[in-house]
Amino acid sequence: MSVPAERRERLAGELAGRDLGWLIVAGDHDLRWLTGFTGTSGLALVSAGDDQPVFLTDFRYVEQAAAQLPDGWSVVRTSLDLLGAGLAEATSGQDLGELGFDPSQVTVEQLSSLSQALEGRATLREAKGLVGSMREVKDGDEVARIAAASRLADTALTEVLSRGLAGRQESEVAIDIERTLLRLGADGLSFSPIVASGSHGALPHAEPREVVIDTGLLVTVDWGARLDGYCSDCTRTFATGPVGDREREIYGAVNAARSAGIDAARAGRSGPEVDAVARAVIEEAGFGEFFGHGLGHGVGLDVHEAPRLSPRAGDRPLEAGMVVTIEPGVYLPGELGVRIEDLVVVTEEKPTVLTTLDRELVEIG
User: For residues 231 and 191, what is the distance between their CA atoms, to the nearest angstrom?
Assistant: First the structure.
């Protein structure tokens, strides 16, 4: 993927604002967002000033990095110990001053090794989630990639459903989803598909079983595609024939909560505020105690990333360009589960919904 130079420029501005001279970027998704590098061994060193940014990698990825990184980067081959001897060697004799790192990307052992290797040439400071927070707001190209992944995922599930649900094992359907996604061109899966029928649907993260799906049940399917590095995420609950009034009542409550949550997910509102709007619908229907997870989460290079839409999320307001899931659910232990999830782009007005599949209760034989 082509990475705009503006991302590095923005990062440099953030570093200057925090009085950091340099930042170590080591996480795979942060590296890909910042540099376009898709390998598994890399480290970026970015300055708050005019110094040339440096990308460190070992012999396996030198040519790949040189081909993928934008103009203006220096690619340096180092030892496999990137966060120790490699970084020390690449910056030999240079005073790095206040050097930031993300503690979620650097282990205690690596931090100790790095501190010793730099021999006092830097003061290490935590800068947790700095690049991750910048990734929350997607640019037009990123939104287009996520939308393409979502369309591919919808097409794949539509094909799988044409082969039916009832009479097939949950695990068989999950494997069918995976194979169909890959055959249609996905790089991979956002996560392992969930296929959960009947009472098994009461487990939000149910693992598909070698159990035949019966008729007259609700079946929850949660799946996603990864395309050009970006993820999609969607959930639908289907019926394998006529179901009772209770099932339809719960489905209706969850679907109404989904609709209310989408309408509320606008720029300027916080994650807890959006969650509360959808949660109130389920509570008013009498099922509040059975909606135990947050309303949604950000989606991008990672299928679960900031921002969060939940009662425990921070008060940072949503911004236009964020891509989030809206996925309310009701889970009755030993009885059934219903979750309906759409992928949306936050705007100043009503969000743009990327998911195309029907939201009403559909019967699949």
Answer: 9
Strands of the sheet with 22-25, listed across from one edge: 74-77, 54-57, 43-47, 22-25, 97-101, 122-126
Which residue did the predictor score with more confidence, 1 or 122?
122
Q: Render pLDDT for 266-294 as a digit per residue (tens, 0 to 9).
A: 999 999 999 999 999 999 999 999 999 99
Comparison of pLDDT for 247 and 111, the residue scoring more: 247
Paired tokens of 20: 């950091």
Report the C-alpha gap between 226 and 29 in whole angstroms: 13
Give the distance, in angstroms, between the CA of residue 88 and the centroid of all CA atoms in the same chain.
33
Report the C-alpha gap between 301 and 29 in whole angstroms.
Answer: 6
Contact by Cβ (8 Å): 230, 146: yes
Tell which residue, 78, 67, 68, 14, has the closest CA to residue 43.
Answer: 78
Q: Tally Cβ neighbours within 10 Å of residue 227.
A: 24
Look at strands 323-326 and 188-189 and give their pairing. unpaired
Q: Which residues contact 166 (CB under 8 A, 6 or more apart)?
A: 213, 214, 215, 240, 241, 364, 365
Q: Confidence band (pLDDT; 50, 70, 90) for 2?
A: confident
Specify which residues 10 forms β-bridges with: none
Residue 92, C-beta contacts closer than 8 angstroms, at least 6 positions apart: none
**How close are the terminal C-alpha atoms of the chain, in Å?**
41
Report the distance separating Cα 236 and Cα 220, nearest Å.
Answer: 6
How many Å apart are CA 137 and CA 283, to the nearest integer? 31
